[in-house]
Structures are given as C-alpha cells and as structure tokens.
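Record type: ASSEMBLY
Status: queued
Input:
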Amino acid sequence: MNRSITRRDFIKSAGVLTAASTLPISMVELAFADSSKNFTFAHISDSHIQHIKGTKFVRNWDRGLIRAVAETNLLNPKPDFVIYGGDLAQLGSKPELDHGAEIMSALNYKTHYSLGEHDYYEDLGEYWSKLFGKQYYSFDHKGVHFVVLNSILTFDEWTYDRWPTGKQRMLEMAGIDNPNGSPFMVGKKQRDWLQQDLAIVNKNTPLVVISHSPLQKIWKGWNFWTDDAEEVQALLQPFKKTTVIYGHVHQIQYNQIGNISFHAVMATAWPWPYPATYSHAEQYLPKLTIPMNRADPFNERDATGWQLLNMANGNVDMHYTLNENTKRTVAFNTKTGQPEDMGYQAVSSLIPPQKHY
Amino acid sequence: MYIKQQFRVILLAIVTLSCWAVPAMADEFSKEDLARWESEYMTVVQQGRKAFTDGKLGENGVSCAQCHPNASNTHPETYPKFQQQLGKVVPIWEMINWCIRNPLEGKDLAADDPRMVALQAYILHERRGVKLEPGKH
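Status: finished
Output:
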C-alpha cells in the first residue's frame, strides 16, 4: 500500500531539517507504507571550475564543489547515487575538467554525469567523454527509468563553421548574455534515440530526465531555453509520472506542464539573478516558482548549494541544501498535481529577500 | 520721483528678462550636438560593457558579467545605500570595487578611473527606465 505524501509529512521533515541544521547533513525521513519503492539521490551541478594558470584555479568556485562533495558524503541515510548536472568546467579546458574530476573523485557514490555547454564547446565534448563517458544515455534504478540528455547542442553552422578556434567558440558560448551565443537544442538525432529508448518503457514507469538546459522555454536571452523543448516534451508526455531536472540556471525554478514536473538545481559556484531582474527582458518564469532569496554578495557561498532528491512513489521531492540560507523543499503535491514549495507557496508567507530587483 | 521709480521698475524688468533669455540662447544646441553627445556616451557605455565582461579587470579571470548577466542584480538605482557588512552608506563605485577585490581578486580602481566611469555608465544604461530608489534593500 502506498500512501500519498501529505503536507504534514513535509512539515515534519522540514522540522527534522531545521533541527539538524547545525550539522552539515540533510536527513530526510519520510514515512511511506511501501518504503522499498522510495530512494534518494543527490544532485550536484554547475561548479564552473576555472583555471587561472599553472596549478592555480579560482578559489571561490573550487570551494563550492569541495563543500558539496563533502556534505554529500556525510548524508545519512546514504543516497543511492549522485547526478552531476553539467558545467563542471568554466571554459572546457583539460586542466579544468581534470581538476573538477579530481574534486569529484572524493565522492563515495556512483556518479552519473551530464554535459553542460562550458564542458563542451572547446573540443565538442571530446575530453569530457574521455573522463566521463557517453554524452547521452539511460539507466534504470529501482523501477525508475532515468534518461540523461545532452541538451546544449546548437545549429551545425554555429558549431562547425563560424569560429576560427575551439577556444573562441567556447568563449562566445560561455557568456550567457553574449548576443553571439546560440540557442540550445537536443537535436533530431538525440530525439530519435530518445523515442527509441522510451518505446520499450512501460508508460506507468516513473521517468526522470536529466538535462543541463531547461527543457522548457523561460528566456532565450540567457539561454534559459531549449529550442526544441516542445518536441522533447511531446516524447515525455505519454508517461504518467515524468520529472525533468535541469541545471544551467543557478537558481530555484519549478513548473508543471501536463504530466511533466520541472525542477532546476542550484549551482555550487555562484547564483544567477532571475531574468525578470533584467528590466529589458521579456521572460516566462513559471508562475508556480517562488524565487529563492536574493543572494548576499558578502557571503560568498550564499545562494549556492546542492540538492537531495527523494523519489516518493515516482515523483520527486527536491530538498535544496542552501549554503548560508534557509533550506527549501519543493515537493510534488498529489492533490494539486504540481510541485510546490513547502514553506513559501502562499503569497502571504513570502519574506522580503524573495523580492528581486 | 514717481517717474524715476517707474523707470527703475522697467529697467529691472528688462534686466530680469534678459537674464532669463540670454542663457537660453547660449544653451541652444543642434542635432549634430545631440548626435555627438549620444555617441560619446554610447562609446563609454560600450567600453563599460567591455570592462564588465573582461576577465582581466581583476586578477583571477573572473568577469563581472559571470554573475551579473546584462548587469542584472547590480541595482544601481538603490545606491547610495547602507551596506551592513561595510558599516556605512556607500555609492555604487565602492561596491564595484568590493566586487573587484573579492570575487575578482583584483585591485581597487580609483573613483575617476575611466574604467570605473565606464562600468557605471554600462550598469546604469542596462537599468535605464527603472525608477530611482536610493537606500532600498
């Protein structure tokens, strides 16, 4: 017998989190009748390890990843595995990918990697693949089908013909507000692969899709965007419980489109402002999303972090471990059929730092 | 006596009027002037954008735009304001220097350094149209 998650359960678990907040551990104990169906995994993303020269790397970004790895190792109960959400490196160089891989090697768990544009555009993922393997793939875990996509591809002309060197191509794509960049896409080849991969999966099987860019359109100006998002969504909609977890945006976002729940993850490196804070942007931040607190610049780890995900009867509860800030949980509400923040969803419960300008 | 007074009043009126009129004439400017001023301003805004995206502004390769795409979340319209961690009310250029010293691990720019002027021009240009709210948090 499966019991659906109630708001009270989450408030209880949030209480556990608060009580444990002096420890660098996020403990989530949700009581499910059929607990064998539930499991947790951690998600670390957007570390942007940045090479200065020789053996010197930007200290701030190093510390973010080192801290996430250390905290994830302290989890109790232990997560089944870890997902890395992409942008391990800042400019996709060998020293950056090597240094990032070295920090990640301290993790005590099996890790599934996905690719970000900062890992890719120097050599089109060649060195990344040497270190981490396939650029897109799927696997099954305790009755859940996981798909990892490379969602940061773009037009062939931009990729192959426009830039004299890989280094310049990387620099042009690295600035998210650079008008010389190009919109992300999954591409037909991978969509065909995805269609085949999903063809043999039962439609009642919970599906979790990992991508770097949002598989929904929020704002093209900063590539909070995937150009063929609708085509990818169409392949996922037939599944009753689908969750897309994406990186790239360095902020809390969540949404529900049909059967698909969307969650963004925190960066370990630095937070990004919401697109609405750019007064000349026309953007589509999902109405459901309650913004994270405005970052305190004087606290260098503020508004960065990592997350623990609880697969609760096929839906994802997202537990954001926010450094220097109140932890947040965004969980699937079975009554409303959408992910909701457990503390702030009511307008009356908003606190001043959740207003951005 | 009365005539003299009246004359004075007229004289005063003329002086006052001319005081008013003369600077207005001196302030007349042409379309060419406007175009030149706009182009001077936009040149500095573009220099500011260049500095804002330049990994060499500090010393670790990090640029301002890495955390502040399109200069967002810099909210220049809220300065000067009290910064708790600095313990005083600061104008935005002091906060820019804080960023150069810390995330960019570099050295302060002088308040009148052309790059500092350009950075402020760019930041404010990206926030044009937003209402002034000094002191706001």
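Annotation: The first helix of chain B runs from residue 2 to 26.
Annotation: The mean pLDDT of chain B is 88.
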